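In response to reviewer comment 3 from the previous cycle, which asked for concrete evidence that the modeling workflow produces usable outputs, we include below a single protein chain processed end to end. The sequence was submitted unchanged, and the resulting structure tokens are shown without manual editing.
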Amino acid sequence: MESRTIDGVERRACMSEACGAIHWGNYSIGVGALVRRDGKILLVRRAQEPGKGNWTIPGGYIEQLEPIGETVVREVVEETGVQSRVVGIVALRDQPRGVHNVYIAFEMEYIEGEPVPDGVEVDAAGFYSLEEQRSMPVAGFTEWLIDASLNKKSDGMRKDERQASPGSANEFYRL
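The workflow returned the following structure tokens.
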């Protein structure tokens, strides 16, 4: 590998032109689930850093070959045992830093299940009203996401079942 200017940015690239490998950067994509039932929102209490002891919405990071809609459903099940399905995208946070993080918050439809914490990533889980949340240490970003969900000015981006590339694993969302 060597350093080269590619597209106006200093990047690491394979020294052999035949190889063609370019390191485009370090990125992570996180997801969060806003699951509502009976006017309450599903929250989990973080059992690990970052944010240990704070209440957040369930979420995590996508796996390399995992569709993002499957990621958010999986994360809710793993952390709480609750079954849900993607309705749409409510909010997005872009956090440029050493590992550039993009976080996508999904509106989810509750299907079934009572919240049970996984005992590893989260040590408590439940559906809580806004009034109940006032006495809980809810993470600031989670408060912002809940506000974005409850006070949205549109239906947000909805999953489009009409695929631009039929048969692909791609997922498409539109306003």
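Residues 27-156 form a domain with the Nucleoside Triphosphate Pyrophosphohydrolase fold (CATH 3.90.79.10). We consider this sufficient to address the reviewer's concern, and the full set will be provided in the supplementary archive.
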